[in-house]
Design brief:
1,4-Beta-D-Glucan Cellobiohydrolase I, Chain A; three-stranded mixed beta sheet; alpha+beta; binds 2-acetamido-2-deoxy-beta-D-glucopyranose; 2 domains; 10 helices; about 550 residues; globular; 33 strands; about 15% helix; 15-stranded mixed beta sheet
């Protein structure tokens, strides 16, 4: 009974959502028999549609308060799996239709790569992806002739069409103060249109910056310009090409996703989920692996019961405020009001990283993350000890620790990780692991089972894709830099703000977090061991022992 298995299955099946190009194109197949003749043994770049990466700016910051930032002019690229895959660079016969490969073009993975080309993307028309200045919009379902569902894009290096941007904490450490690895990541997110069952995700994967071109020994001619090289901690097996070899061997079409399937190979790498969310629930989750960088897996090295034999920690160590016991912190009209825009700040503290902290900024207020209210688990940030306590409290196997915990996340960071942004629904577990009771066969009231207010019957892709076709996520104002360099606001927004259901929020004071004169503010700590701060609460709140003897809070 492991939540792990479900969580991993959920991500494994869904991070892909492979797209094939409208199959109507295959009607032009008579045009090109010649296309089948391999010119060179390589995965090709198609030329039917010019590939133009949508521009996106982001900022590198120093100092404090988001005032010393320099703008980087970069762009984003659509992942290869969503692209039209056809025979020959300028052919029109599909290599992959729906969820099956053309066995003539693809008798084996190498021949398939030599015969098949990834084509350029019509970003807004086909995929519902658009950018404007520093904002990226990802639409869930497009109105195109053949609706596209979900998408996944990567940030390119500034001015480059052939290399992904990597985020490397060593560089950060170099130009900033001590104890900093991947610090001060900040972005504004608008999830107000994302209901149950959807996931707007922003995360880092330790993909190769060259999209796997070097590892392909010349077989991958498409590269980052066409979004190749994806990997993550679920070791997904739906990826169509891995290091220049098609995953067509042993491909099994998904029984419940007309666009996806799985091959015998999976592609693994450490993953830092900075943000996985809809308007009901949110989580941030590091996932270490026993192998650093991209690695190719088969069988149980891809995934196994409760992650123990798999290459990666598929479950991860998640901080989801609702799951951690604060049911009024994140959601529409709540402390972090998801019916409005807000800013998410994630701090990676220490070299190596010892703690990952979360702040929100909304309406000028800096809101500290919610505190755990689970018996035996203290704190409002991810540390190795928080994860150990959480796994014990929830009865989960601690594969986060067995795959190396925060130490491995630090090493992955040092090597550089690629920024991924996506919107997706979940063909394996209906996203219940994010926003509802999960797994279904455990009591919803058992510790760690309920993750949000969505119904256990919500989130089926068929429902979500019809009822929430217009959903979208907008990521804007991405900043990266030293600790405290990317944001400003009135401290203590979460601690000193009273939420009026339906009436927005009222800032009652602007004193530092958790301290209003001699008594602690709402949600602030007011006791525990060790604790030397105030032990009384401002009116009308009272000091409640949340996790005795360690933590009491004003509620
Ligand atoms: C819950 O379901 C999982 C997967 O089907 C199974 O392995 C586990 O034994 C079940 N647990 C209970 C308590 O029924
Ligand atoms: C598969 O590819 C071959 C060779 O190009 C082509 O003749 C055939 O029509 C294709 N099959 C489908 C179903 O597209
Ligand atoms: C999970 O892993 C532990 C440790 O390897 C093992 O003892 C346990 O049986 C596993 N549980 C399941 C459900 O596979
Ligand atoms: C969809 O199919 C996958 C296998 O490809 C399976 O693991 C998953 O449970 C299925 N999901 C649903 C909701 O039926
Ligand atoms: C960031 O700001 C917080 C709150 O003001 C402070 O506690 C922390 O020490 C600062 N960190 C750095 C590295 O300046």
């Amino acid at each position: 009974m492991d939540a792990h298995l479900f969580v991993l299955a959920a991500l494994a099946t869904s991070l892909f959502s492979s797209r094939s190009y409208p199959s109507v194109m295959s009607r032009y197949s008579f045009l090109l028999l010649a296309a089948l003749l391999p010119v060179a043994l390589s995965q090709l770049a198609g030329t039917n549609t010019a590939e133009n990466h949508p521009a996106l700016t982001w900022q590198k910051c120093t100092g404090t308060g988001g005032t010393s930032c320099t703008t980087q002019s970069a762009s984003i690229v659509l992942d290869a799996n969503w692209r039209w895959l056809h025979q020959g660079t300028n052919g029109f016969t599909n290599c992959y239709t729906g969820n099956t490969w053309n066995t003539t073009a693809c008798p084996d993975g190498k021949t398939c790569a030599a015969n098949c080309a990834l084509d350029g993307a019509d970003y807004s028309g086909t995929y519902g992806i658009s950018t404007s200045g520093n904002a990226l919009t990802l639409k869930f379902v497009t109105d195109s002739q053949q609706p596209n569902i979900g998408s996944r894009v990567y940030l390119m290096a500034p001015g480059s069409t052939t290399e992904y941007q990597t985020f490397n904490y060593e560089n950060q450490e170099f130009c900033t103060t001590e104890h900093l690895i991947l610090n001060g990541r900040r972005f504004d997110v608008d999830v107000s249109q994302l209901p149950c069952g959807l996931n707007g995700a922003l995360y880092f994967s330790q993909m190769d910056a060259d999209g796997g071109v070097a590892k392909s020994n010349g077989a991958n001619k498409a590269g980052p310009k066409y979004g190749t090289g994806y990997c993550d901690s679920q070791c997904p097996r739906d990826i169509k090409f891995i290091n220049g070899v098609a995953n067509s061997a042993g491909w099994t079409a998904s029984p419940n996703d007309t666009n996806a399937g799985t091959g015998t190979m999976g592609t693994c790498c450490p993953e830092m989920d900075v943000w996985e969310a809809n308007k009901i629930s949110a989580a941030y989750t590091p996932h270490p692996c026993s192998i650093l960088g991209q690695s190719t897996c088969t069988g149980t090295s891809c995934s196994a019961a409760n992650s123990t034999q798999g290459t990666c920690d598929q479950a991860g160590c998640d901080f989801n405020s609702y799951r951690m016991g604060d049911t009024t912190f994140y959601g529409p009209g709540m402390t972090v009001d998801t019916s409005q825009k807000f800013t998410v700040v994630t701090q990676f503290i220490g070299s190596p990283i010892t703690e990952i902290k979360r702040f929100y900024v909304q309406n000028g207020n800096v809101i500290a993350n919610s505190q755990s209210q689970i018996s035996g688990v203290t704190g409002n940030s991810i540390t190795d000890s928080f994860c150990a306590a959480q796994k014990t409290a929830f009865g989960d196997t601690n594969t986060f620790a067995s795959k190396g915990g925060l130490g491995v996340m630090s090493q992955a960071s040092a090597a550089g990780m690629v920024l991924v942004m996506s919107i997706w629904d979940d063909h394996a577990a209906d996203m219940l692991w994010l926003d509802a009771p999960y797994p279904p066969n455990k009591s919803a009231s058992s510790p760690g089972v309920t993750r949000g207010t969505c119904s256990p019957s919500s989130g089926a892709p068929s429902d979500v894709e019809s009822a929430s076709a217009n959903a979208q996520v907008i990521y804007s104002n991405i900043k990266f830099g030293s600790l405290n360099s990317t944001f400003s606001g009135t401290p203590g927004g979460g601690s000193t703000t009273t939420s009026n259901p339906g009436g927005g929020s009222t800032t009652t004071t602007s004193t530092p977090p958790g301290n209003t004169g001699s008594c602690a503010a709402q949600y602030a700590q007011c006791g525990g061991s060790p604790w030397s701060g105030p032990t009384c609460c401002v009116s009308p709140f009272s000091c409640k022992a949340i996790s005795p003897p360690y933590y009491s809070q004003c509620l």
